[in-house]
Amino acid sequence: MSIKRYENIDINNLTFSRSGFGEQQTTQTKWFATRAIVGDVANSVKISEKYRVYQDLVNFTIHYTPNAKMIVDNQNLYSIKWRNHDWRITDARESNDRMSVKLLCYRTDPVTAV
């Protein structure tokens, strides 16, 4: 059984646009701050011949609120800031009694040369 703890997180709105050159731009705007139960933190590194790719996974459990319902319904429009890193939501699971929502989030750092 893993140890879980409450930690502060920020929920961000994501806005997608294109620059004049056609590059995709993502703008993050802080929506609200909350506390979540953080658990199952996993860090990994994948090394190929030329590059290292760091990938992290974490579970955040938050209370079921109207804001949480919006996040579950539109996961691609929100991100989470925790430990000064941005985390994207990959899976959202509502508890059967609708008391909480578990968000599985990932963070992939840029590719780094070996």
Helix content: under 10%
H and E string: EEEHEEEE
Cα end-to-end separation: 35 Å
Report the radius of gyration as a whole number of Å.
16 Å
Shape: globular
Please identify the structural class as seen in this structure.
Answer: mainly beta
For the biggest sheet, the summary is:
6 strands, antiparallel, barrel
Query: Order of strands in the sheet with the most strands?
Result: 1-2-3-6-5-4
- Give the low-pLDDT segments: none
Count of alpha and pi helical runs: 1
Strand content: over 45%
**How many beta-strand segments?**
7
| Residue-averaged pLDDT | 89
Topology of helices and strands:
Layout: E1 5-18, E2 24-47, E3 51-63, H1 66-73, E4 78-82, E5 85-94, E6 100-108, E7 112-113
Can you put this structure into words, describing what you see?
There is one protein chain. The protein is mainly beta and 114 residues long. 7% of the residues lie in helices and 68% in strands. It is built from one helix and seven strands. The chain has one helix spanning 66-73, and strands at 5-18, 24-47, 51-63, 78-82, 85-94, 100-108, 112-113. The chain has a six-stranded antiparallel β-barrel with strand order 1-2-3-6-5-4. Strand 4 and strand 5 (85-94) form a beta hairpin. The longest helix has 8 residues, at 66-73. It is globular.
